[in-house]
Structures are given as structure tokens and as C-alpha cells.
Specification:
L,D-transpeptidase catalytic domain-like; three-stranded antiparallel β-sheet
């Protein structure tokens, strides 16, 4: 859907409130007429085994917020294609990048709204904080627990922080914990993919860090963009620890075991991969990998590891730009299996 249509008309916004957000208290404008029910969270991994309240002990506990200095002039940049949240202090000193799980893909676009048509091109946080985990009328929750779906309450927020965003199309898209496996002692595990109903999910250890750094800061700008974020030299801003499929400019960028940067001839940007003949390693929370014939090799027996294509991690491979292209039914070099993958064109 074109960005020009995202904020066009009250009818569309009303539909977005019902379908596009992660919770009713968390994706509607502040109003006590909003009601108390929350809308669908999207897919929740581990939910089936967590419907029994006897498994909720860990989820009902507020998680510890680290005692770290708050940033002076914080700024957040979220990249939907990059699956990153970049928190930095414009006053200098602090600069970190975190993995995220934004809104699921619908018609090729994430349910998480971009901020390019908002005033100034950004959303903002507010300033007020509540210590009550059930309160719905604030911006900063140090301990959010409950999700309410037509009177059925489940503690999927798991005692982790919740940061509400203000700005079009609603006042309530937020940044919160991972939701998946919410009964775990730490509050859950993140899938770095398109998984939510509009909010931005973070790993448990990361949301407490971000919360501690920006808590109570009025009007912290939050820019949400579609494209990969880049530095002044045009390099992708990504996690310190890269993985298969990440953008790279040198082998040193692919800092995992046996990782190499494959740069096509005549190009300056490449893709992190590693050699294979049969299977490839996987990393928790990332897209699974698959061994395919190396398009640059002279024999079919030489392979490279590439990300698989899936609804969670981008079925069409479009988030990788022109670096990787969708190949359906790609075959392993040993011809033992096939999979839809995101493979270098050359």
C-alpha cells in the first residue's frame, strides 16, 4: 500500500485501529471510550503451552530495569527492511543497534506504520510514566503485564517495559518485549522478522536497556522508515554480530564462524555467507538457512548458505534489495532437498 494512502481519511484510520495495531490500549488515541479489550497480537510462538495460568509465574513478575544513565538527547530510528532499532544520543557518546520484530507483512508491507508523512517525519514518545501495569493512559510502562482479548487476559507482556508512541495514524503503536515464549524467566525470546500486529517487538534484554535510556524523556523522536538505515558513507547500519544474509563490504563484517562477504563483480556491497555442501547452521531468532549451489562456482558441488524465504522473514526477499533474489525450489548441491530461498543473483 502506498505511503500516501496510509493517512488518507478517517475511515482508513479507523480500520487501522481495528486491524493494524498490537493492542487497543496500545494502538488507539488516548480516550477513555476506547474500551478495555485488546486486538489480536498476531502469531505468538509458545502460546499453546502457556494458556494454563499455572505456567504464568515468571510472566507475572516485573523485570529488573538496569540502573544506567539516561541519554541527554535520545533519538530512535527504526528500519523495517533492516529489522533494526538504532538508539543514539545526539549529545554524543551512546550509539547502539538492536534487532526487532515489527508488524507482519500484508500486501508486501509491514503493519508497522512508517513516520515519513508524520509532522517532521517522526513520531514521538510522551513523558508520563505509570507504575501500574494495568494502566492504559500513559507513555512509559516499566512493567506491562496483561493483554486483554474480549475479557480473556493473558500476561504476554511479561512484566517488561512498554513505550507508547504518539503521532499519526494513531497515538498508540509501541515498542515492547518479544511476546513469544512469554513464560520464560527473562520474559521471552525474539524472532527477528515480521511478526507483530503493528508494534515493534524487542528482545527482553534490549527493551529494558532502551527503556532505561529514554524513560520519561518528553518527545523523544522515533523515526520509522522502510529502507535500511545507512551511515554517511552509505554502509548499512546493522547489528555488531552479523549473520547469513547480512549486507557487507568486507569479510570482517561477517563476524561469525567461517563467514565471508560475497561481493559481485563491479559492486561495492555484498552478502554474508559461508561455504557448504549439504546443511547450513541456524541462529535462534533469525531466518533458517539453506545450502544452494554457488552461482559463481564452476561446479554444482560447491555451495553457499543463504536465508530461506518465509512469511516471517520476508517471503519475497524484497527487504534485501537487489542483493538477494527469490528463487523457488532451489536445490542443494547434493540434490537431497529443495527450498524457497533468497539467493545472490550472481
Amino acid at each position: 500500500m502506498a505511503d500516501s494512502k496510509r493517512f488518507a481519511g478517517v475511515g482508513f484510520v479507523a480500520m487501522a485501529l481495528l486491524l493494524g495495531g498490537c493492542t487497543a490500549g496500545d494502538d488507539e488515541a488516548f480516550s477513555e471510550s476506547n474500551g478495555t479489550d485488546d486486538v489480536d497480537l498476531g502469531e505468538v510462538v509458545g502460546e499453546a503451552g502457556a494458556r494454563d495460568p499455572r505456567t504464568w509465574t515468571n510472566a507475572l513478575r516485573c523485570k529488573e530495569i538496569p540502573n544506567v544513565p539516561a541519554l541527554t538527547r535520545p533519538e530512535i530510528i527504526i528500519s523495517l527492511d533492516g529489522l533494526t532499532l538504532h538508539l543514539r544520543d545526539r549529545a554524543g557518546g551512546y550509539d547502539r543497534v538492536f534487532p526487532i520484530g515489527p508488524g507482519a507483512l500484508e500486501n508486501g508491507r509491514s503493519l508497522t506504520p512508517t513516520s515519513d508523512l508524520a509532522p517532521g517525519g517522526v513520531f514521538y514518545t510522551g513523558s508520563n510514566t505509570t507504575e501500574g501495569p494495568d494502566s492504559q493512559w500513559t507513555y512509559y510502562y516499566p512493567c506491562r503485564i496483561w493483554h486483554d482479548d474480549r475479557g480473556v487476559r493473558t500476561p504476554v507482556f511479561a512484566g517488561l517495559p512498554f513505550i507508547r508512541l504518539a503521532g499519526p495514524p494513531t497515538a498508540g503503536y509501541g515498542i515492547h518485549g518479544p511476546i513469544d515464549n512469554f513464560t520464560a524467566p527473562n520474559g521471552g525470546s525474539l524472532r527477528r522478522g515480521y511478526v507483530s500486529h503493528g508494534c515493534t517487538r524487542m528482545a527482553a534484554e534490549d527493551i529494558v536497556e532502551v527503556f532505561a535510556r529514554v524513560r520519561g524523556r518528553a518527545r523523544t523522536p522515533v523515526k520509522i522508515q522502510q529502507a535500511v538505515e545507512r551511515d554517511n558513507d552509505g554502509r548499512a547500519i546493522d547489528l555488531t554480530e552479523r549473520w547469513v544474509g547480512a549486507e557487507c563490504t568486507a569479510n570482517a563484517d561477517c563476524n561469525f564462524t567461517n563467514g565471508v562477504c560475497r561481493i559481485p563483480a563491479g559492486q561495492t556491497r555484498g552478502t554474508c555467507t559461508l561455504s557448504c555442501t549439504g546443511s547450513c547452521p541456524d541462529r535462534a531468532g533469525e531466518a533458517t538457512t539453506f545450502c544452494v549451489a554457488d552461482p559463481a562456482a564452476t561446479t554444482m558441488s560447491t555451495g553457499i548458505c543463504v536465508p530461506t524465504a518465509s512469511p516471517t522473514f520476508n517471503r519475497t526477499c524484497s527487504r534485501y534489495g537487489d542483493r538477494l533474489a527469490l528463487v523457488r525450489g532451489a536445490q542443494r548441491p547434493d540434490r537431497s532437498a529443495r527450498a524457497d530461498v533468497c539467493r545472490p543473483a550472481r
